[in-house]
Amino acid sequence: MFPMLLGVSLIAFLLLSLSPGDPLAAQRGNPQVPDELIRRIEAQYGFDRPVPEQYVRWLSRVVRGDLGYSFKFKRPVADVIGERLGATLLLALFSTLLTWLLAVPLGVWAALRRGQWPDKSISVLSFVGMSLPSFFLALLFLYAATVAGPLPLIGRIPIGGLVSPGFDRLDLVGRVLDIARHLLLPGVVLTIGGLAGLQRISRGSTLETLSQPYILAARARGLSESRILWRHAFRNAANPLITLLGFEFSALLSGAAFTEIITSWPGMGLLALEAVRSKDQFLVMATVLMGSLLLMVGNLLSDLLHAWNDPRVKVS
Amino acid sequence: MSLMSVRDLHVSFPVRGGFLGRVQGRVRAVDGVSLELAAGETLALVGESGCGKSTTARAILRLLEPDSGQIHIDGQDLRSLDSEALRRFRRKAQIVFQDPSAALNPRRTAFQAVAEGLLTHQLSTGAALRERVLELFGLVGLSAEHLDRHPHEFSGGQRQRIGIARALAVEPLLLVLDEPVSALDVSVQAQVVNLLEDIQQRTSVGYLFVAHDMGVVRHIAHRIAVMYLGRIVESGPTEEICTDPRHPYTRMLIASVPSLGGSTARWQESRGELPSPLNPPSGCAFHPRCPLARPECALVRPELSLIDGNRLSACPVTAP
Question: What band does B261 get if pLDDT is binned at 50, 70 and 90?
């Protein structure tokens, strides 16, 4: 795990130093900031040193828990990340949960009705869903939300951001509802993006499991079809889905970037874009580290789920 | 009254092809098979792979839906049962599959595999259930320590023992054994075959034993039915079939087993491959491979006819 993080950070750091730009560009352009101060900052953060030394200095600070300072936000990187990570996790959890709750049953249903109208119509919708790029879908939904105006129950669907103006004046219930309303649009866009692929895999995996000899053997013993499906087929069919869950969760953190940017969801994706554009070196590195860390957490999660679901896998 | 009676069974599969996967024809996997089996008896259904013997076995239990024909087991017309009645009837007729690794759910323990049938058919519950499962384990040569293990922790032979215990749990009258030993090592094969014989002596269960190995069949079967390309070509008592095969195809099968006196080089030469059931040869389906074939064999399909009083053969050339 640590060698991988090391490799990822090294490559990211090198690429970043090769790219043009300057984290202190804004300060340099400001006539009020004396040259003397800029040189002091450069010396303090090691920008005047060779790249390898800069990397080692950065690494030794990170190991001690200091992620550095963001020149764009003029605050410690850890504070900025902490603020954005919550929003991204909220979005990722919401859309992952929604995707799974919809895609897996739809896949199983399509497998049971293979070749009949439910399967065929779900297949068509899945291919449409897979073919639509998320940014296009996000724009489409933004447009629809704007045109639709206030809806019954939820009112006007917010078209961006995490909270409404005046959020601070709301009570706890009001705050939760406000965030939920903002979550709706990016959450649904991400769900539709992930739904199609997962439904296909769930369908395929269920079909494959249902064709196994032990399913025929269960039928031969006179078990009911529902018991065959849920006790015998489903837990075996879930294996490839669990593998996917780990990837999907971490992919959502980075893959959500497009949606985050378009719906101005203040998450890691939007943050990473802002950081790269202003060459905010320490912030970029922190977002990269965070991304790889979450990928590993996702994989660990799916490994643990495997061990729980499959007696052949043991946690050692 | 016979335990199992099958009359004129037909099973076919659609062949799809082309751009839209339309049905382009049907393969006649089982083409008019009739079989009889008495309680406590073992009938072997033998033939090369692809001849339709496993399909026949599965269609008899309606694990595959036959196109036509009558199936009676223990006096019950199986084709008249709706799905719920069939599910309850399955208690009386069980099946053991060829590949014990694939036929056991990798996620279920040996205990769960064996107990599930008992629970489904409400034969045993609670503490009695564990006792009964242990008893079945004893019957097939497994012990209490194996109860909570998963299939991957067993050897192939042990897995097949679980498969047999699982099928015997509901006390069936008929046990279909679909190549039960062909996936096992030779030494383990003998153990499992002996186990099956023991069980039959104790319970007088009837076996429909599907196999391609004449050596194993000769050991366990009372009667043999030889199948070629979806049809029975010869049937009769085991010893008579093995010592005096009439149909050229049976002779070829027996000649291919050295221990059964693979005497004649002539039969060895005639081997070749099973033709495609998609486009079976005209007349007698065996004629392209048959060393005794005459011109008329390609024209007229011979029917099974009685020879020697208790045997049937579908070859007019070798008939007396």
Answer: low
Distance of alpha carbon B240 from alpha carbon B155, whole angstroms: 36
In which domain, by residue range, is A121 found?
A: 81-278+289-309
Asked if the interface predicted TM-score (ipTM) of this complex is over 0.90, the answer is: no
Please state which CATH class domain B4-92+172-313 belongs to.
alpha beta
Q: Is residue A75 part of a domain?
A: no
- Examine the domain organization and report whether A88 and A143 are in the same domain: yes
| Predicted structure pTM score | 0.79
Question: Which residues lie below 8 Å from residue A122, measured CB to CB, with a gap of 6+?
Answer: A106, A109, A110, A199, A203
A213, A224, A232 ranked by CB distance to B87: nearest: A224
> Stretch A96-105: mean pLDDT, rounded?
91
Among B73, B81, B105, the residue to mutate for chain A (most A Cβ within 10 A): B105
Closest by Cβ to B116, choosing from A213, A216, A223: A223
Q: Are residues A60 and A127 in the same domain?
A: no
Residue B193 · residue B216 · CB < 8 Å: yes
Nearest C-alpha neighbor of A268 from the set A249, A289, A287, A296: A287
The answer to whether residues A104 and A34 belong to one domain is: no
Six-digit token string for B175: 């046990």
> Quick check: is A226 in a domain?
yes
- For chain B, give every domain's residue range: 4-92+172-313
The Cα of A223 is separated from the nearest Cα of chain B by a number of Å equal to 6
Q: Which of residues 209-238 of A touch B (CB under 8 A)?
A: 212-214, 216-224, 227, 232, 235-236
Structure tokens belonging to residue A208: 């494959």
Helices (H), B140-283: 156-168, 186-203, 214-220, 238-243, 248-255, 265-269
